[in-house]
Write a structure and sequence with these properties.
It is found in: Membrane. InterPro entries: Glyco_trans_2-like (IPR001173), Glycosyltransferase_2 (IPR050256), Nucleotide-diphossugar_trans (IPR029044). Belongs to the glycosyltransferase 2 family. It comes from Serinicoccus chungangensis. Keywords: Glycosyltransferase, Membrane, Transferase, Transmembrane, Transmembrane helix. By secondary structure, the protein is of the alpha/beta class. The protein folds into 2 domains: 214 residues, Spore Coat Polysaccharide Biosynthesis Protein SpsA, Chain A; 70 residues. The chain has an 8-stranded mixed sheet, with helices on both faces. β1, α1 and β2 form a beta-alpha-beta unit. α9 packs antiparallel against α10. The relative contact order is 0.14.
């Protein structure tokens, strides 16, 4: 029996969290009235991505007064995208919304997302940020660069500035979770399915409390996963660099042969060193790019899960030490 069949509800809201003890009470205060007003069976599936602060305690307290709150705790920090995937695989709703807990994305938009999906029979409703003035300039510039790069690489199926705040139908969720890819970047995977979709825009607010859990290192990792996950451009770049390197080597060979034939002597050490260094750098770059793809293939061959669930409040089992 799948998660969807086990006590299915009309709506599941998946919320990945990591060390969000400060903002969670505010998030619950904003989210619960919105969902109660929908007058449908719902569940809020919070995926605790290995938090090290008091997040588990805050969630358990909230669950005592909110029976629709369901907690899935991962044994170790698996990352934002993996936490969302864990929630999607365990969601039971016919409609599934994914949203972060930092309140930069307004929970009040969920009602409009559900309405639009039902009225227009849509499988996906994207929440698109049309105003990011509350973000830092660095964040806005890097976000624009990310989406522009993805578009140029061919991942232009979805709306620009659409992050991980979206609504999906049960068919969409099942299609996503059936994919064998381990390093899913959902903001690219979901649009690539081509399911009927709509867009709602909103103003991105400042974080309500706490600090961002998405430092530069994670942003770079997301960019690498996005590029290698949606495009063969890096491999083609390696091919072209190899082709150019071969042409350069051929030209140098002809030059050396001509010089030898006419009796020219070339000091050569500096130029040879520069050429060897340049070619070696290109080779290393190509190996690095190829290594990204080989690594992803190797990970999929192993079949190791990207997360391990320590406790699911739906089962009523106590977490193991």
């Amino acid at each position: 029996m799948t998660a969807a069949q086990h006590g299915a509800s009309a709506l599941t809201v998946v919320v990945p969290v990591f060390d969000e003890q400060d903002v969670l009470p505010l998030f619950v205060q904003r989210l619960r009235p919105v969902l109660d007003a929908l007058e449908v069976d719902y569940e809020v599936l919070v995926v605790d991505d290995g938090s090290t602060d008091a997040t588990p305690v805050v969630l358990q307290r909230a669950r005592h007064t909110w029976p629709q709150l369901r907690i899935v705790r991962l044994r170790a920090n698996a990352g934002h995208q993996a936490a969302i995937s864990a929630g999607l695989e365990r969601a039971r709703g016919e409609l599934v919304v994914t949203i972060d807990a930092d309140l930069q994305d307004p929970p009040e938009l969920i009602a409009d997302m559900v309405r639009l999906a039902r009225e227009e029979a849509l499988d996906v409703v994207y929440a698109v940020r049309d105003d990011r003035r509350t973000d830092t300039r660095f964040k806005r510039v890097t976000a624009h660069g990310y989406y522009d790069t993805m578009r140029r690489l061919g991942a232009d199926h979805g709306p620009t500035q659409a992050g991980d705040y979206r609504l999906m139908s049960r068919a969409t969720v099942e299609a996503v979770t059936a994919l064998p890819e381990h390093h899913r970047v959902l903001r690219l995977v979901v649009p690539s399915l081509g399911f009927p979709s709509g867009v709602l825009t909103y103003r991105r607010d400042e974080r309500a409390a706490g600090t961002s859990k998405y430092p530069l290192s994670r942003m770079v990792r997301l960019a690498v996963d996005s590029i290698t996950g949606v495009s063969l451009a890096p491999l083609r770049l390696a091919t072209w660099l190899g082709f150019v390197g071969a042409l350069v080597a051929l030209v140098l060979l002809v030059y050396a042969l001509v010089g030898y034939a006419v009796g020219l002597t070339v000091p050569g050490w500096t130029s040879t060193f520069m050429v060897v260094t340049a070619v070696g750098g290109v080779q290393l770059l190509c190996l690095g790019i190829l290594g990204e793809y080989v690594g992803r293939t190797y990970t999929m061959q192993l079949g190791r899960p990207t997360y391990y669930v320590a406790h699911d409040s739906l089962t009523g089992e106590e977490p193991r030490d």
